[in-house]
Amino acid sequence: MGFWFWFFIYLGIALAALIIYAYVGFQLLNKLKSFEAPAAKLAELAAKLEKTSKAEVTVESPVAAMDQTEQAVSRRQKQIAKARKAKKEAKERRLVSRLKHLDIDESRLRK
């Protein structure tokens, strides 16, 4: 076998390797593009979380009920009950919203 025969064999192997690397790179690029939208959503949520974590929290010191009038105590209890109800309703709204936008991907069940 001559020089040119082995030259073309090795050249073919090198070109085949480059084509395979290009194909694998293209497939990897397509998979990375599918992560772009969730990554943007996570970045938005991370920015919101960072903003709220930097906000200063003021905590009111509790006042003993014995030091308050009966009307003030009952008003405070009504406010607490109202806040709990509002919090529960907000949680239900978030759950319903999350369920409305639920993206069920059954491809993980296929083999």
TrEMBL record:
The chain crosses the membrane at residues 6-26. Keywords: Coiled coil, Membrane, Transmembrane, Transmembrane helix. This is Unannotated protein. Residues 66-93 form a coiled coil.
